[in-house]
Amino acid sequence: MSRKFLNLPKTKEIDGELFPYISYSQHSSFNETSDEFRYQMILQYIFGIKVPSRFQDFADYGGECGEYIETKGEKRGEMLSDADCEILNDVMKDFSDKSEYEREVWIDRGNYFILGYEDRWEPIKNSLCDVEDFKTGNIDKKGGFYASKKYGQTVLYGFAEESKGIEVNDCFVTMLDRKGNPMSETNPTKLYLTGRVEKIPTPYSKERATEVLTSMDDTARRLSLLKTTYDKLKNLTVRL
Question: Looking at the domain that runs over 11-234, which CATH code has it been given?
Answer without folding.
Answer: 3.90.320.10
